Amino acid sequence: MLALLLEVLPRVLLATTGLILRRPVKEQILGDNDASWRLFWEALHKRHAEWTGQFAIYDAIRGWALKPNVRNLAPFQKDKVLNSNSKGIRGITEYDDVRPPGTHRILVLGDSFSFGTEVSDDETYSHYLETELMDTQVLNLGVQGYGHDQMLLYLEQAGLRYHPDIVLLGFVYPDIYRNLWTFFAFAKPKFTLIPNGLKLTNVPVPTPEEILAREPYHSKALDVATIVQDRFLWVAGVNERRAQVLSRAILDELIAKVRSIGAVPVFLYMPVYDEVQDSSTAMNAHEAFLQDYCQSRGIGCVFMRQHFRSAAAHGVKLEARFHWTPAMHRMAADDLANYLKQHGIVATAQAERLTASGGPATRH
């Protein structure tokens, strides 16, 4: 009888979908863990198809992906247009595996901030960067909700076949937490650390139908226990340390893949939410994490917050609650273009790619 009661009470509590659907209440009542995000998705699924949006499709390896052949969709606001090509890359441009002669190619990986949630195709930093660099294609492989694990898998699945000179990763610090979970915007893959490196788990990712069919049989008492335990792990700093250790290993693998084809990895630190309004001149702890990582691995890294700080001082309106504005994307493109030009990375990337493929190591 006690066991039944212990299961019934959590079911009653967690069945209150009105609470779960409100994000601030979700964060207070639930938390950041697999159980909480699964319950959140289940509640949202009753209202609409996917939390990842009407432009997302199921993917057995990555969990979800941008739907191919989207045309003139306005999912954010009516004057913001979203398109995708036949391979599910943002925009209408089609890309052959082999680059056009004399053309550089930059591949962008990232989450919703790189994807360009809330802006049009021609307002992303990928688009602006392409307009600032001569003879350069910039492929935007950002997908909203992605962790670094999904970015690595996307690179392996599809990105490498485009033979980029540069792979640019839009780094949003909260993405390191997504690497800990098997559920976020939807069910997702997860890497675990093993003595020899990384082991991929939760693949193939279960379909929405499979998840919904299993849900009645999930122990809600176990869900509540997981949620409570996870709160202590966050407070104690255990999850923060776990996320950082796992993320370093995932990024190491991503960098190894990039360098294996002679491409150059570059990171863009993207300030989000409270960071956007941080007016301090010193690096914060999240920026320091990436700076230490990049310095130890010899990775070029561009940090945006000081540019935002300067722009705000001159009256530029910055978005701190949701996603970046077109002006913020343009600032990122300016900083990236300047960095690539000043460091000669476009020419260097081309030379390294040719050397790796056995071709002449000449600069263009």
How would you describe what is shown here?
With 364 residues, the chain is α/β, with parallel strands linked by helices. It has one domain: SGNH hydrolase (Rossmann fold, 3-Layer(aba) Sandwich), CATH 3.40.50.1110. 44% of the residues lie in helices and 12% in strands. Strands 4-3-5-8-9 form a five-stranded parallel β-sheet, with helices on both faces. A two-stranded antiparallel ribbon has the order 1-2. Strands 6-7 form a two-stranded antiparallel ribbon. A hairpin with a 2-residue loop joins β6 and β7 (197-201). The chain is globular. Mean pLDDT is 88; it is low at 2-7 and 359-364.
**What about the largest sheet?**
5 strands, parallel
Briefly note the CATH topology name: Rossmann fold
Rg, alpha carbons: 21 Å
Proportion of residues in helical segments? 40-55%
Distance between the termini: 76 Å
| Count of alpha and pi helical runs | 15
The H-and-E topology, N to C, reads as HHHHEEEHHEHEHEEHHHEHEHHH
- Shape type: globular
Number of β-strand runs: 9
| Structural class based on helices, strands and sheet pairing | alpha/beta
By CATH, the architecture is named 3-Layer(aba) Sandwich
Record the strand order, biggest sheet.
Answer: 4-3-5-8-9
Mean pLDDT: 88
Q: How many domains, as an integer?
A: 1
